[in-house]
Design brief:
alpha/beta, 5-stranded parallel beta sheet, 5 strands
C-alpha cells in the first residue's frame, strides 16, 4: 500500500512514518507533504492508495486539499489526523467521505484499525475489478 503523509510538522510526519512502518502491514511511504498545495501536487505525482492528512496546514488546509483533488483520485483513501476535535471539521470530513478521523496523538491500535479498514476496502475493490474483468 502506497501512503502519503501530509502534515506541516516534521516531527508528526516522522513519528507517523515510524509507527506505520512498525505496523509491518506492507506499507510503503511514497511521499510526504508539509502543506496543502504540496499535498495536491504529491497526490497527482504518486497516486497513493492512502493519504494521512492534517487539517491545519499552510497555503491550503487539509480539507480544502481533499476537496480539490478527491474527484480525480476516487480510489485514494483519506484519513484525517488532527489535533482539533472540532465538530465542524469532523462533519466536513464525513461529507468528504474520509475513511477515518483520528485525533493526535494517535494510538498504535487506532492506527492499525484505520489502516486495516483501508486494506479491507482495497481488497474488496480489487476483487470486484478482477471479477468484472473476468466476466
Amino acid at each position: 500500500m502506497n501512503v502519503l503523509l501530509a502534515d506541516d510538522e516534521f516531527l508528526v510526519r516522522s513519528s507517523l512514518k515510524s509507527m506505520l512502518l512498525e505496523l509491518d502491514m506492507g506499507i510503503h511511504i511514497a511521499a510526504e507533504a508539509c502543506d496543502g498545495e504540496e499535498l495536491v501536487e504529491k497526490v497527482k505525482e504518486y497516486s497513493p492508495d492512502l493519504v494521512f492528512v492534517d487539517i491545519k496546514m499552510p497555503k491550503l488546509d487539509g480539507l480544502s486539499a481533499i476537496r480539490s483533488i478527491k474527484a480525480q483520485y476516487p480510489d485514494t483513501a483519506w484519513i484525517v489526523l488532527t489535533g482539533f476535535p472540532v465538530f465542524e471539521y469532523a462533519k466536513e470530513s464525513m461529507e468528504l467521505q474520509v475513511k477515518k478521523y483520528l485525533l493526535k496523538p494517535v494510538s498504535m491500535a487506532d492506527l492499525r484499525d484505520a489502516v486495516d479498514s483501508v486494506a479491507r476496502d482495497q481488497t474488496v475493490r480489487l476483487n470486484k475489478l478482477n471479477f468484472e474483468f473476468e466476466h
